[in-house]
Amino acid sequence: MLHLRLLHQYNTHTVQSFTDAFQLEGFKSEVLRLEVPSLAFQHHYLMDALLSITLLHLASTDPSPDLPVTTYRDRALRQLRHQVENVSADNARPVFMASLLLSVTALAADRHTGYEGIWLTNWLAMAIGPRIMIDGQRKHVSLRPTPLRRVPLKHAAPVAIPLDLEDALRMDEDDEDWEFREDLQRAASGIGRLFGSLVCPTCDSCVAFKVRSWPFVFVSSKFVDMARQLRPRALIVMSYYLPFFHWFPKVWLYDDVAILEMEKISAAVGSEWAAPLAAPEVAVRVKDTSLLKDFLLGLVSRECLQDEKSFEGFI
User: Fold this and answer.
1) Cα 119–chain centre separation
2) CA distance 177 to 238
3) For residue 148, what is the DSSP state?
4) Whether 59 contacts 112, CB under 8 Å
């Protein structure tokens, strides 16, 4: 009976919550509503992923201690790890779908399971999976044509890394983070592009899209490893991403993420790194969009925002 209840919940409510939150149209909505359930009946790990995200949605809207929130997700993750190692033309698409569903709901999963670590590290790790698989999948299966983006990502805009973040990333060759400097700098350059998008007139409608794209475009597996090891520089980079959760959809997937994660990051890095964390600690508590933009832009060099010769595309 629980399976039937969850399948009904998925088709009538959960899919709609994704469609509304991410403004999905056309085949993207159809994939969630029709193709995912169809393939789920053929691939158990995808069915477990579907049931998992539906349980999380149900727990977020109608909390009940009797809901087995972790059961299906844990099973889906175990099976998915095995499938990823054996991707073929037969399983490439359902593997990708399961990976995407689990990554999108990673933050909500950590919240409802009471995970005490930094949720963002798991979310970033899960986000890397679908990104890597997009290229790998092309070897095995033809993807549906993707409509032209309504969001321009290649137009030139400022790359304005906050000054305190730049200071935190400076290091000598004998620093223990030296071997990871390129991973740190790439993640920080993505943060700089998010800050720059706040002043670009053509970006007004696409800040949210760019914010959601940051993990997929700028975060490496080495960066995630650093974050999981609680290395301060990686956590500080992440702290400057947290204020941009203001531009995420106000839905069950992201409830209270920014403030809760900032508190955990502050506790993890210690007083030695308090200075670069001071600004994002304030920013995550600003609720007004206009005030938040002004505050964030006050953290970067004005020259970076005005020197058009240094502007770059998001990707």
Assistant:
1) 11
2) 16
3) P
4) yes
Which segments of the chain are extended strands (E)?
none
Which letter does DSSP use for residue 299 in this model?
T
Question: pLDDT tens-digit profile of 88-146?
Answer: 888 889 999 999 999 999 999 999 989 999 999 999 999 887 666 655 555 554 444 44
Residue 37 to residue 47: CA distance in whole angstroms: 7
Coil, helix or strand for 312?
A: strand
Integer Cα distance of 210 and 163 in angstroms: 21
Q: How far is it, in rounded angstroms, from Cα 95 to Cα 136?
A: 11
Q: Among positive and negative, which fits the CA dihedral 52, 54, 59, 64?
A: negative
Q: What SS3 class is residue 138? A: coil
pLDDT value of position 145: 41
Average pLDDT value over all residues in the chain: 90
Span of 133-142, 159-168, 197-206 with lowest mean pLDDT: 133-142
